[in-house]
Design a protein that fits this description.
About 35% of the residues lie in helices and about 20% in strands. The protein has two domains: about 50-115 and about 290-390 and about 415-430, 3-Layer(aba) Sandwich (Rossmann fold), CATH 3.40.50; about 120-285, 3-Layer(aba) Sandwich (Dimethylsulfoxide Reductase, domain 2), CATH 3.40.228.10. The radius of gyration is 23 Å and the shape is globular. The relative contact order is 0.19. Helix 4 crosses helix 12. It is an alpha/beta fold and about 425 residues long. The structure holds iron/sulfur cluster. Iron/sulfur cluster binds next to helix 1. Iron/sulfur cluster (SF4) binds near residues 34, 157 and 158.
Amino acid sequence: MIYTDMVCPFCGCLCDDVVIETEGDRVVRVDNACTLGTHKLMTTRKDRLKGPIMRDGAGGWRDASYEEAIEYAAGVLLDADRPLLYGWSSTQGEAQGLGVSMAELLGGVIDSTTSVCHGPSILAIQEVGHPGCTLGQVKNRADVIVYWGCNPTEAHPRHMSRYTTYADGFFLQNSFRERKLIVVDIRKTETASIADEFVQIKPGGDYAVFSALRAIVRGRGAVVPPTVAGVTKEQLEKIAEICKSAKFGAFFFGVGLTMAPGRYKNVRNAIELVDELNRHTKWTLTPLRGHYNVYGSNEVFTWMTGYPYAVDFSRQIAFYNPGETTSVDILARKECDACLIVASDPGAHFPRKCLEHLASIPTVLIDPAQTVTTPLCRCQIPTAVTGIDASGTAYRMDGVPIHMKAFLDLGYPTDTEIVGRIFEKVKEVRHP
Ligand code: SF4
């Protein structure tokens, strides 16, 4: 079978032009996806668990039925005073919505991987707004592109070919020659090597460079010293001029900016630079989101609770205070007594102190395959992968919702089904 216009379930680009060929229940060919997407689609059956597994009480694992695992997960959550429901970035919006409702009923905390990637971007956006646009606008209009603290060539490999440097658009017939590419980073990356202008800044110097550029764009360049964070004033003036003379500029940034010293203040300064440039011409700003539906978790959490991540229901109302209600902080302070992890791998990313607490409390993982998080858990429930053997909704990095279609049936339940069945059991006790 050949399936066309399929959506790649890997990164926030959500490329929707993928062609997949299958023989039986095996993927034998993938066209249009990058190496990351192709690898995920081609190896979808590798390492998947055949069914739920639970601790056997002697340090090993035993097989369990879905009913038993769901019963266990519900019991663990119901017994807890303040359970943490974490992850949600590589799953469908429908499951995210159920997760929020369940967290509210349990009086727990729901958080997504946003708290360890673009959380600072959201804090900045809440303070000064978001001058955003769709990637279609960028493709068709933007003649100057800035990538700051990110390396799309390796992390979002088709971003440049679908939307920027290599993508011809309605107003750009020869994109590669007509678009100017500026890359700002602390080292020369693959993306920087093809930039028209590469600005190498000292680590931690982002805030100062933004402030210098804002001063130059405002016509107050006289206050800028000869070098700022390793960048010469001459180069800063050149960059400011390129940006001011753009017809339409698009600024993209990654965790190289959000997780550098300054954090959300960096992003706030970036947004204010974009505001400054909008006094001269048209500029927009978009965070490069990693997991394919991390943006969706922010959308779903916000329209259900008013807050985009780290939502705490333990006070019987939705409460949000990043730094206090974010997963890393809760785990490090041992403030949760059970955890449900859905479609994410904190074992590979969280500090050791957090993982030690995770291993000491009843933790249930919903994930198709064994991951670094598995050894920290007491039960794992495998599910279908959205975009492969489950259909569902995901939000692209520019906020556009996209329907992801399944093309295989491997017999696994979806995340929505498993979270829904756990939620039903929770409701039986809390709302008999
Ligand atoms: S750029 Fe991202 S969404 Fe597109 S094919 Fe590659 S991994 Fe998949």
